[in-house]
Amino acid sequence: MSYVEFLTEFGPRLVDGTITTAQQTILAAAVAILIAVAAGLMRLSHNRLIYGAATVYIEIFRGTSLLVQLYWIFFVLPLFGLTLDKFTAGFMAVGMNLGAYGAELVRGGILSVPKGQWEAALALNMSPAKRMIRIIFPQAILNMLPPWGNLLIELLKGTALVALISVTDLMFEAKQINGSTFLSAQVFGTALIIYYLMARCLITPFMRWLERIMARKLGRI
Amino acid sequence: MKTLTKDYPLQLSGDDSPIVRFQNVTKRYGELVVLDALDLDVAEGEMVTIIGPSGSGKTTVLRMLMALEKIDDGVIYVNGEPMTHMEKNGALVRASKKHLRQQRTNIGMCFQHFNLFPHMTALENCIEAPIQVLGLSKKEACQRAEELLDMVGMLEKCHEHPARLSGGQKQRVAIARSLAMRPKVMLFDEVTSALDPEVIGEVTQVIRKLVAKHNLTMLMVTHQMGFAKEISDRVCFFFDGKIEEQGSSSQLFDNPQKERTQQFLSAVLEAG
């Protein structure tokens, strides 16, 4: 079977899988960003309880395996009465895991805003919430965009694990096709290329575009 | 902190009460005493300049008055009311955040490094706090900001981001931004120290204008001795967290009494 024949026969399934992978990536990214902002801000709190809660979360999700977390959310949580369908469990696990890494990026980005900006906002009598939302966060975003680009690529690759709880993503389809045809080189080679192209041609340019937009807002271009 | 009952009045009253009073104000960073039981009164409309060697506590005075940091002892009064403290059951206790925010409305501050918000244009810098803090409408805030930007000679560049402005231009916008909050007391913390020599004049010119046209109380920390001498009603020479000597600018510059003042002034003047 030539590679063209292979693609003609199995291409549609790989495309379906790729769409699922893209959906998982987008939803997981949304979860990761929400968690990262929340936990990152909590890590800046002077309240020990709030700071402690975020620290425990980050330590647990950063310090243990994503695969184990995925199995926990899908197989163990139902024992405690919380059942998630496999699609939801998949992106929640990936998002919660990468969100823990993202929290430190958010914290670092906020702390990288010069002290003078905080003081100027204070001298203008802005409330802590307005100061964060209007002055500090917009500047922090620009500082944290490059590492977030890294993290989102990591997240895309992390979604391959959801195949292990039978979410029909790209990796799941590839494994199924391999199981029935044993065309390992073709199928896994194609999956590899698709993952790479998603990262290189979608995520990276998107992040560059965001960086340009934010830099323009800061008047740096 | 313990409540303060004795020695500190709950309010300053009387026609001659100062707009700013530091009473026994002490600030420490660990072991280091930056302000040592400072007493300082500033009358309404007065222009007071603070000079002295680095590390003498000059900038700290302004930072305490802006409530950027907490003091360790003593009380600061603004506009007759205690700012660092508030009254509770007939005694002074440390001010709540709410009280501090309310008291901060009286004070405006300009910084050595301008600290303009880089993601906003000059105009947006000047309307941000009036809209967000004072609750002005955008139209009112813009009108007020444009008047002030015009006064500092920056109206033409009001749609530029700070990154496209020179140091002198940035500092003039920063002055307009502070004034837009209508403070009673303005603090200038070495506002010309980060500027190239040829643009210092545009900033000092704005401050001259403020002194001439507005009945604004001002405290200024500066290394520009010529400017200080020309513009100040009173000059305070700081040394080791204390006022070593103070007086009218002619008194202090032309006829300093204390040895440390003489040494400092001759060293500064020698350096040009």
Descriptive report:
- The complex is a heterodimer of chains A (221) and B (272).
- Chain A has 221 residues and is mainly α.
- Chain A has one domain: Orthogonal Bundle (MetI-like fold).
- Chain A is built from eight helices and no strands.
- With 272 residues, chain B is α/β, with parallel strands linked by helices.
- The radius of gyration of chain B is 19 Å and the shape is globular.
- In chain B, strand 1 (20-29) and strand 2 form a beta hairpin.
- Chain B is built from nine helices and twelve strands.
- The interface between A and B is medium-sized, with 20 and 29 residues.
- What overall geometry of chain A do the principal axes of the alpha carbons give? flat
Strand content range of chain A:
under 5%
Write down the overall mean pLDDT of chain A. Answer: 93
CATH architecture of chain A: Orthogonal Bundle
Instruction: Report mean pLDDT of chain B, rounded to a whole number.
Output: 91
Give the proportion of residues in helices of chain B: 25-40%
Task: Find the CATH topology of chain A.
Answer: MetI-like fold
Identify the biggest protein-protein contact and residues per side.
A-B, 20 and 29 residues
Element string of chain A (H = helix, E = strand): HHHHHHHH
In CATH, what is the homologous superfamily of chain A? MetI-like
Q: Over all CA atoms, what is the radius of gyration of chain B?
A: 19 Å
The total of helices of chain A stands at 8
User: Could you give the order of strands across the largest sheet of chain B?
Assistant: 8-9-10-3-11-12
What is the total tally of β strands of chain B? 12
Radius of gyration of chain A equals 21 Å
Helix content of chain A: over 70%
* Content of β-strand of chain B: 25-35%
Order of helices and strands of chain B: EEEHEEEEHEHHHEHEHEEHH
Number of strands of chain A: 0
